[in-house]
Design brief:
This protein is 26% helix and 19% strand. The chain is an alpha+beta fold and 316 residues long.
Length: 316
């Protein structure tokens, strides 16, 4: 395991870390954003390609029946709900996992969801996209809140880590997160930093090549433990996570009823097949981590804990 020894964090001001109050870069409360993703009469307006015209992912406005709107990334799933670098279940699992050890003001993944749209709803977004599952016209997508003020420039700054304790705190959270999910895509833009110097959050905005996914051609630099110190609060919460907790939260991240024609999730039922990530049985569709992915995740968490207990990684 590669680990760059970066800095010895000054003890001045560490009391600040016990209760960080920065609200991050979300313009609305997390619950408001999540509810918006699952609202019934959701409209998609002004879709624009994010990186290039042929890119399936779009940046668009989501608008509800009261005309409340917010900006989001929309990426349609591949046929069958899975493909390399297009795994809605991995994106949602990463978002859910962070909730198990971070407060909303510390999130390193923007609000993320899986939901489906009818062809009529999706026609103005990308008319070439087809149904996701045979026998249902629904188009399943990953939705992610679009951060308003972020940059992919100078995201990891060693000098700033030494002089900016809040930046170091957020990087500590992100580094622990990218390590335990085994983030396997070093593409520029997958990790970003807030442009607000007073609230220097860092985020992993693309986690589709993670957990047990093969490494990207662009490398895997974000999965390594780069920092010599991690936040004590984060470490203590990771200590509390059991294998059963991970199975309860991540084995079924989202479940849908194709027969209802409704693109919103339904209450989960027992896992159909623990060794598949996308499971279809009759009209039921489940998205989640496999048994092996969960086991490997738990092993990485326990290994990180041992590194701290053995003194190889410090706390602040």
């Amino acid at each position: 395991m590669k680990r760059t020894r970066l800095f010895t964090l000054l003890m001045v001001g560490l009391i600040f870390f016990e209760n960080p109050v920065a609200a991050g870069d979300f313009e609305y409360p997390v619950r408001t954003i999540e509810n918006m993703f699952y609202t019934d009469s959701l409209r998609i307006l002004q879709p624009q390609p994010i990186r290039y015209n042929a890119d399936d992912a779009r940046r668009a406005l989501l608008v509800d029946s009261s005309d409340f709107m917010l900006k989001a990334k929309i990426k349609p799933a591949a046929e069958g709900g899975k493909a390399y670098n297009n795994e809605p279940r991995l994106e949602l699992a990463a978002y859910i996992l962070q909730k198990m050890f971070l407060d909303s003001s510390e999130y390193v993944v923007p609000p993320t969801a899986i939901r489906a749209f009818t062809p009529q709803q999706f026609n103005g977004v990308n008319p070439e996209v087809q149904q996701t599952f045979t026998g249902s016209p629904l188009i399943f997508c990953t939705l992610q809140y679009w951060l308003p003020a972020i940059s992919d420039k100078n995201v990891y700054n060693e000098k700033r880590l030494r002089r900016d304790s809040l930046y170091a705190y957020h990087w500590g959270n992100l580094n622990a997160f990218t390590y335990i999910i085994h983030h396997n895509d070093g593409n520029i833009g997958n990790v970003v930093v807030s442009t607000d110097s007073l609230s220097p959050h860092v985020y992993a905005v693309d986690n589709g090549i993670s957990f047990d996914a093969p490494e990207s051609r662009r490398g895997s630099g974000w999965r390594d433990l780069r920092l010599q110190h991690l936040p004590r609060k984060t470490f203590e919460r990771l200590q509390e996570i059991t294998l059963q907790d991970l199975e309860d939260q991540l084995a079924v991240c989202a479940q849908f009823d194709l027969g209802s024609g409704d693109g919103r999730p339904v209450s989960p039922t027992p896992v159909i097949d623990p060794y598949r990530g996308v499971r279809v049985e009759g009209d039921t569709v489940q998205f989640g981590l496999t048994k092996n992915e969960i086991r490997h995740l738990h092993e990485r968490i326990r290994y990180l804990i041992r590194l701290v207990e053995d003194g190889e990684i410090g706390l602040f």
